[in-house]
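Design a sequence for this backbone.
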C-alpha cells in the first residue's frame, strides 16, 4: 500500500474509519465502512486524519486494504482493474445521480446538463447539488462532471483537486 504509509484506523460503533495518504501530495483521504462496503471516501480538509493517525492500529478491514490498492493504482496513473463494494446512503434522486456517475468512463468528462438528461432530469442545477453531496469521491467519479462548454466548474473539494484528478486520468487515457 504505497499511498498509505501511515496505516492507522479507528472504529466507532459499527462504523470503521481509515486514513489514506495520497502519494506525492499533502492530501489525505478518510474512508468509512459499515464493515461490508465502503460508505464514504472524502478529502480530509478538517484534519480529522491527524486524530486517526494518532490511533495505533492495523487496518481493521480487508476492504480498506482493497480500497488502498485501488487508490494506489489510481494515483499511479492507472485505471484500477477491480471494483470496490459500495453502500451509498442518500435520497432516491441522489442515488440515481451517483449510479450514473459510475458510468462515466475513466479519462472522460460529461457536462452537468448531459448527466441530467441521462437520468431524465430537467435541472442541471439539481444534478449539481446531488453531485456535490457524493459521499465517495474518486471511486464515484464526481470530478468527471464539467460545465456545458467543458470548463472546470464546481467541485466540493476545490477546482485544483478536480484539475489534478482529471489530468491524472488524461495522462493514462492518452497512453
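Sequence:
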Amino acid at each position: 500500500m504505497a499511498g498509505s504509509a501511515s496505516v492507522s484506523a479507528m472504529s466507532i460503533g459499527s462504523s470503521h474509519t481509515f486514513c489514506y495518504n495520497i502519494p506525492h501530495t499533502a492530501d489525505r483521504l478518510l474512508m468509512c465502512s459499515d464493515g461490508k462496503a465502503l460508505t464514504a471516501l472524502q478529502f480530509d480538509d478538517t484534519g480529522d486524519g491527524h486524530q486517526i493517525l494518532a490511533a495505533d492500529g492495523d487496518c481493521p478491514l480487508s476492504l480498506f486494504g482493497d480500497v488502498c490498492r485501488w487508490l494506489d493504482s489510481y494515483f499511479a496513473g492507472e485505471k484500477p482493474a477491480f471494483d470496490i463494494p459500495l453502500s451509498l446512503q442518500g435520497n432516491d434522486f441522489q442515488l440515481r445521480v451517483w449510479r450514473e456517475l459510475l458510468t462515466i468512463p475513466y479519462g472522460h468528462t460529461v457536462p452537468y446538463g448531459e448527466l441530467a438528461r441521462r437520468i431524465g432530469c430537467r435541472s442541471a442545477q439539481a444534478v449539481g447539488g446531488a453531485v456535490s453531496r457524493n459521499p465517495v469521491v474518486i471511486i464515484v467519479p464526481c470530478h468527471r462532471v464539467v460545465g456545458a462548454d467543458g470548463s472546470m466548474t464546481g467541485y466540493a473539494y476545490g477546482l485544483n483537486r478536480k484539475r489534478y484528478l482529471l489530468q491524472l486520468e488524461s495522462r493514462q487515457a492518452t497512453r
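Residues 57 and 124 are 44 Å apart (CA to CA).
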